[in-house]
# Entry
Amino acid sequence: MNFINESAWKYLSVKLPILGAFLMLVLIPLLQWLTDYQIIPQQYHATVTGILIPALAWLGRKIAQPKLHQQPLGFATITAGHSNTDPGAVSGKIKEADLVVNFRNAVTHYLREAGLQVKTDGTGSRNDPLSSAIKLIKGSSVAVEFHMNAATSKQANGVETIALPKDKKLAQDLSKTVADALGSRLRGDNGWIDQSKSARGRLAYVNAGGLIVELGFISNEDELARFNARYWLAAKAVAKVLIDYESRN
Ligand SMILES: [Zn+2]
# Structure
């Protein structure tokens, strides 16, 4: 026999029959008295005692207990920009898609370690396309995708997060924690870029409620070197911001 791993006490179908059993302690002498004095006929004695407990069990099963069906915390969606077939920005042999897959895996590692449920657009080196990433956003409590910026000027640098105005604070917190870990500066409004002002215009991922973190410029040699040296630290810091955010919501 295997026991179900839960407390049976929360169910009314367990509680009510136990209540019924206690009632019987009172009810049986009462019925005895009633039949002894012929107030109710003898034959009803067994019927009343026989029906009470099954009836209470049935009632306990039927009464809705919505709290029993509430899901625990939602899940976080953590995805990597681009895909296995779209490398994104490229600097020599280094591809944006590869860097952000590593970053996605690191953030996911720290979130799961903290006990959060995480959905990703792939594990290991797998990186599903944007359309799959967007499908994950629905139902998630927060959704973040990682990218690297690129510019013709090799001097361009900094961290920014593109998000809807409602997520401005979280966007700024994410950018700041990445910038601090990598020794970079913030772009935009303290690290937040309204998607209407983003160079890429309206982004499907952001429209669906996600945030896009641009971790730095792949085209900037110094920033790329700092990213490679410290991205695990930055990923851990990002996970911390998301854990704090989830615990507040
Ligand atoms: Zn990108």
User: Anything to note?
Assistant: Residues 8-66 form one domain. Residues 81-82, 88, 96, 147 surround zinc ion (CB under 6 Å). The chain has a mean pLDDT of 88.
